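Hi L.,

You mentioned the student needs an example of a multi-chain input paired with its predicted structure. This one should do, with 670 residues in total across all chains.
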Amino acid sequence: MTTTTQKTGESGRTGEHELPEAARTGIGWLDEARETAWRLHRSLPLPDRATHLWRYTDPARFALPDGMVPRSGGDPVEIIVDDEARRAGVTAGPLLEAARTDDDGIRARLGALVPAEFGFPESLNAALWSSGSYVRIPKGVALDQPIRIRTTGPGEGTLQAMRTLVVVEEGASATVVEEARGGAERGDARLNEVTEVLVGPNASVRLVPVQHLERGVISHRTLRARLDRDARAQLVVASFGAGIYKADLGAVLSGDGSRSEIAGFSFTDRRQQVDHHTVQDHSGHHSTSDINFRVVLGGRARSAYTGLIRIAKDAPHCEAFQENRNLLLSDRAKAESIPELEILTDEVRCTHGATAGPIDPEQLFYLASRGMAPEEATRMIVSGFLEETLQAIPDEIAEPIRVEMHERMKGVAR
Amino acid sequence: MSETKSLLACEGVRIGIAGKEVIRGVDLELRAGEKVALMGPNGSGKSTLVNTLMGHPGYELLGGKILLDGEEIQDLPADERARKGLFLGFQYPVSIPGVSVANVLRAAVNARRGKEVSVREFRKEMMAAFEMLNIDPKFAARGLNEGFSGGEKKRAEVLQMALLKPRVALMDETDSGLDIDALKTVAGGIMKLSGPETGVILVTHYQRLLNYIQPDRVHVLMEGRIVRSGGADLVDKLEEEGYDWLEKSVEERQEA
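Structure written out for the whole complex:
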């Protein structure tokens, strides 16, 4: 094999023309799709920093750096599903295995919501994902216990591209927790994750993307859930770790009467950068959505939140709410919050709100007058700030988030 | 216990806000078992004084001393003053969203007593205080002052006083915004909590609360100074004649 390296376009990215050998799966249709995605990725310039999605985070961070190798071998994913679910006919296993047998027409579903054309990091994912999970909840099956997908983050000098496909069939309900931990503590490591969720008519899903990645990891995540008629999706997003973390999370409310909720939590400190984008995309009649995103920042951390509400012209009687609140524990931390509304119909109810600021000194004085030292008072106010949103979430999901928040509060640099 | 024991004393206290002197030399003493009323028209500096006594970082002590149990506390932060037994019942208590009444009470009780009080013991005390103040036990789970009515906020302040058992309670306009039933409950609570070892300063500009709590002494604060001190009969005179006659005497004094 000959290796040629050349500069491409303005992006300054270098790399091979050919799909890296490690990315070949031996599955004909998939390798074809990967080649196409790879060619597309190589032809794409880096996204323009002037476009809203990339105003806060440098897209070059999500390109495949020169000489960095995609992770191969040693599956970093562990899927935990109980026997009850297995007996009920639930599928939960490696995505590649499912693709090999083309179970349930995966071929048609993979990339339906987040195709290679979706964007720059997504094209890289489509070409290179090396491990992933496939979850299918059959029609009418309601699971009590969550399905857990645990990922170990990439080590130094590695790119790890992962993909998850979740199919919740008509009338089914389930919780899927996607948890990423570990990875490089310093240096440069990349994680690129894409999750697609198809929620059938009258089905209900709770998705919990949580990340506690180490600070050497630069991570991009794209998640889309598409909701059929009367379907419901609740997203509980918790972002704690990584050096740079960018997430694009959205609900496509194409079914009439569908409903999505996103509860977001982020806790960052030192020099962490987080960039969350949410999408509430309404095309179904009477569809409703609600986002409540709470960010706590210490040290020199940076947070950007951009929230898009889109309501199609022929989608009357929709309701969309969006709230983003940022609590700054340090005067060197910085938070930006930008709502974006594209509302093409008149019959809607839509509100949005954003706040960013330090803890109210009157709250600190109040608790001090009750004998609480400043650190304790701060902890209490921060936990209350998050608790307002956590209360809407079942305890088994909320409790680990609560515990992690308390843990993080101990080490916050003021 | 000697009845002359001083619990709280201000000596020549001067306070500035944003460079302007608003309390211009106040001497005040509160002895064990006493209830002292601090009255005065709006803007006379009553709230500024009690907030500064508590240690509000926004107010600057320009001069003078504050003594709690004979110990100077003017350089201590608010939380240390609180742990030594000073308490402020706020005129406008802030809300702490997402933090329940029970959580704040428990943390406050632990801080005040310097040890972890068992959950069982704490609940017992909390329920007793709820009963005394006619508060629904469901109150415990609500976010502190979140969506509370005026009356609920004031009750929550007295509730905290009940559990913290302060040496000195500064009650800032605890009577404002209360209907007559709530006023009776709140006044009854303060009466029950003010024993022979405790001192209370009641800040108010109406006599209403003082119909239920007989003060041992009354001070009238105007334009940053105590312009008149007296017994409970001073309250009646203020009720009949308002503060105008005192204003005149302030002017006369300033001219002199």
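You could point out the following to them. The mean pLDDT of chain B is 92. The helical segments of chain B are 46-54, 78-83, 101-113, 119-132, 150-164, 180-193, 233-241, 244-255.

Best wishes,
N.
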